[in-house]
Amino acid sequence: MQTIDFEKLKLRDGDCVLDVGCGEGRHTIGAYLQAGVHAVGVDLSETDLQTARERARDFLQPSGSAGSLTFQRANALQLPFADHSFDKVICSEVLEHIEDYQGVLAEIRRVLKPDGLLAISVPRAWPEEICWKLSTQYRQSEGGHIRIFNATQLKFDVEKLGWRRYARHWAHALHSPFWWLKCCFWEQDDQPLVRWYHQLLVWDLMQRPWLTRGLEWLLNPLLGKSVVMYFEAQSNLDTGSRKHG
User: Fold this and answer.
1) Are residues 97 and 38 in the same domain?
2) In a structure prediction context, what are the per-residue pLDDT tens digits for the chain, which is 245 residues long?
3) Are 128 and 144 in contact (CB under 8 A)?
4) Residue 68: which residues within 8 A CB-CB, separation 6 or more?
5) Which end of the chain has a smaller Cβ tally under 10 Å, C or N?
6) Are 58 and 33 within one domain?
7) Which domain range does residue 103 map to?
């Protein structure tokens, strides 16, 4: 399940792409498959990284192909890369877990090239607020969400570092009701309604039928569980405006 729209991120062959907080590798592998990019996924969890490596084996191209795919353990507050190393950076569903999220943004700015692009997603505020109200365990479990983001404030925090948002959308509308059910029946995955809804989401993910895809597209602006924003350097947009002026 991918949250980032790679077309909006403008992936190109040869790009160096960093996935910060990659988890089990969904966006790192997705970027690698989308274009001939050099994709690097970093995460603190060695367990998740091992899962990502195992999944990646099914997709790796023969040696000598245009792109590459690697995973390594790293702290998002101390990324082990030189300044201006990456053309694109992905940070999806990560910042809500980290106390010093502004420190993560500063590190991303350091490793991103001056003309690079950044994609960020976080849980949307109002669906997340319902989850918090329905279950204290949802937010108190290990590795849980420690804040509810106001998307406008997050946009402001990112733009203070010299970027400007050039695109935004919402994602995973069909997942919001599922998580409300999960919170109502926390740690009761065998509850019939929770189990049925999970099976529906798995079926939708694997089959991608037009009915549910169209329904989610219609519902995302209202019900989308995640808000996704794309940023580029302020100077790039100013230059573009002058060229078209």
Assistant:
1) yes
2) 899 999 999 999 999 999 999 999 999 999 999 999 999 999 999 999 999 999 999 888 776 567 899 999 999 999 999 999 999 999 999 999 999 999 999 999 999 999 999 999 999 999 999 999 999 889 888 788 999 999 999 999 999 999 999 999 999 999 999 999 999 999 898 999 999 999 999 999 999 999 999 999 999 999 999 999 999 988 655 544 444 44
3) no
4) 32, 38, 39
5) C
6) yes
7) 6-125+139-172+225-244
